Each structure stands twice: as structure tokens, then as C-alpha cells.
């Protein structure tokens, strides 16, 4: 923003939608190229459905981009292309595993349908929701729904029984679903809303041990309740991954909300107690730990993990090439072990590239949380980003023997509709929050005979109401008293793809503010 003359201000916001469009096209092209290369290497010809796959593969991401350009013009420009690229690579790898069977299966086709539904939810969040703050009003309702979804697999006649040792699926007619994936999103919103409401109480210090202020005993209820809930999931559903994911997310959000290291210490202690208890009480956990530490001592029990390690070793640094490996030798190659399938055919370099893309999504989400000046949005963005990061760490760490196997899905890549829909919803919420954070709001100060517009991204969150009233009540000749957060921005929002807006006497600034007026919070 620059002040050319008294009463004339130019606002140049930075949207980067053209950059996002180019990145989306590039990501779609990479996914389509991987799909085509699989058919060429396996069948020696182009895919029979190449036109259909190309149209859908480009159309769906561009529709999402159009919705963001229309309703969330200031949203982060990197999140959508990264999600599109991961989804496209996952589709190509699932298609490659389909071709192993004779006749080929149709896992990629069903995954494409779930992809369309997931992108439709992202578009719905962009067009209908647009602002995350109304979600703050339903902490207990969303929390209760999330807990019910989490425990649905235990309902007789609805749960599908043990699959891979865990009871985490429900069956409704011909469809199966993993409700914990949806519960993850709902509980993240509920946790953020609750912690914003109670953070002043939870931040009070109690005992001081080894230089760390621990919380008061009476305030331990929330973390103990979540701890018990995650233990119930571990004991009755044998779901180690979901237990770790939800408890880790809650402890992290509690620490971010209160900024008290004592909560992290208590969370770590409770996690250690739960881990030891789970190992002693549940044979399923002992099997996972044994397969992690000594996989070759019982090859029948650790067969899929052993095969995954051989696949990674055979792929080496640069991989065998798409369609040239043998990922079908590993059980669950298209779901739990799709990361090792990628590592076998694209090599460790390709697997590291995939991990880097995940890191970009996580970094942009945490950057959104850091920039957000409104507590609910900050906590929600941090919680969603951390849970996404923790899920990637647990599943890729498990299949590479860095950690015990947890049974979680690889976001956007593993075959499964519930995981895909939940992760596209998470991306939609992060885009909504980033739009509100990055959106500049122009306000006006009266200084002498001229006008000064003070503009910062997210200004509508950060300026105190009384400070705004004091600015309004100042006389025209009284000098402006700006707080450190109300610093003037000069040529800070210059951009390459958006036109400037000139504001003169009688014009309206972005946010509906005219020179001489002050926007009310």
C-alpha cells in the first residue's frame, strides 16, 4: 500500500490464484503421466480409458481451484496443488496394483469416485462455509458426535469385526466405512472450541517441579477424560493408531492453547503409562511390537512387513520404475503399505519426494496457525496440521520399521473412501482458515486534512475494540496513536497477478470502509 497524496491510497493485496492454477495443472499432469506410464510398462499400450481419466483428472482439481478463486481468493495457494499431486500418485499406484490381478480389478475406479466426493466436500466448504468461526459455537455437540462415531464399530450388527486385528470398520448395506476418520475432523473442531473457552483456567499454574509449572490437580479432568477414551479405543477396538492420533492431537492443542510445558509433560507421562498398559493387556499390541523389533523371528506373523522391506531394498535409490516392480507380493500393498509400493517403484528418492510434499502441506498449515490472530482459528489450524503430520509419521514410520505398525492410512494415497473424504475435508478447512488469515482489511484514520488507511492481513481479528473506539473519537487534528500491531504497510502487498484498487474520497475500501470511517469489529 502506498499513499500517493492526501486522500488517495492504493491497496495491492496478494492473492496468488494464478500461481495456484499453474501448480494444479502441473500436479494433474504429473498424476496423469504416472497413470499412463503404468499402462505402457505393464501392457505396452496407452490406457483404454485415457480420455476419461484425463478429463476427470484435470476437471476436478480445476473446479476446486475455481471455487477457491471465487469464494476464498486469499487462501493459501500451495495446499490444493500438493493434495492433488498426492491423490494423483496414489491413483496411479492403485491402478498399477489393479493390473497385477488377472483379470484386473477396479480399485482405481472406486478411488476416483471417492476422490470426486472428497473434492466436492472441499468445494462445499469453500462456497458454503467460507468462514470457520461459526464452528466455534458447537463444541459439545461436535465432540459428542465425534465420540459416537469413534465407538460405532463396537455396536453389534454394525461393526465388521476384526480386520487385520482391529475393529475399526462399520458396514452399512454394501458399503464399509471407517468412522474414526470423520471423528478426527469433528473432534479437532470440538477440542479447539473447548480449549478457547477454557484456556484461562487451564493455563493456571499449580505445582512447580524441576523448574516446570504443572497444572492444578482440579484442572486435569479434560486430559484424563481424553486419555481414558483413547485407552478404551485401544482396549476394545485394538486400534493403536487411532489412540495415538487422538491423544497426541489433544495434548498438542492443549499445549498451544495454554503455552504451559507442564501439560506436555503430563501428556507424555500418560502416554507412557498407556503404552505400557496396552502392551501388557493386549496381545495385538505385543504382536505389533514383536514384529517391529524381531520381524524375522516369526516370518508367518510378520510376512507383510518382511515383504515390504525386501521391496524397498529391491527398489533401491531410484526405483524399478512404475509398472516394473512387484508390489503385489506385499499384502495390503494398495492400502496400509502403499508407501512401500511407491518406494519400490520410484525408489527412496521418490518416497522422500512424497514425504516432502506432505511436509509442504504441514508447513503451510502451521504457517496459517502462526499467522492467525484469532485463538479458535489458530488452534484449529494447528490441530489439523499436527494430526495430519502425526498420521503421516506413524504410518510411514511403521511400514519402514522406524515404529511399530499402527494400521493408519497414508493420507490421499491409500485406497479407502473414508480416509480420502476426511483428508479433503481437512484441506478445505485449512483453506478457509488461511483465507481469513491472509485477507487484508482496510481501515481509515483521519490525520490532519488527509486520510491514512492502515491495513494488515487479519486486522479484523487483532485490533482491540476499545482501541478502535478511541481512534474514532479522536479529533481530526489529533495525531494518530498506532499500536505496534497497527503499523503502516508500504508497498508490502505488491503482486504480479492482481490489479490495484485506488481509494479516493467517496470510494469504498475492501471491507466496506470509506475514507474518514472506521470499521467496527
From TrEMBL:
GO BP annotation list: cell division; regulation of cell shape
Membrane topology, from the record: Multi-pass membrane protein
Keywords: Cell shape, Membrane, Transmembrane, Transmembrane helix
Keyword Membrane carried by entry: yes
Record has Ribosomal protein as a keyword: no
Source domain of life: Bacteria
A GO cellular component annotation in the UniProt record: plasma membrane
GO-annotated molecular function: lipid-linked peptidoglycan transporter activity
Region (Disordered) residue spans: 467-521
Membrane-spanning parts: 21-38, 50-66, 78-97, 112-130, 137-155, 263-281, 346-367, 379-400, 412-433
Organism: Microlunatus elymi
InterPro entries (alphabetical): FtsW/RodA
Location(s), subcellular: Membrane
Protein's recorded name: FtsW/RodA/SpoVE family cell cycle protein
Primary residence: membrane
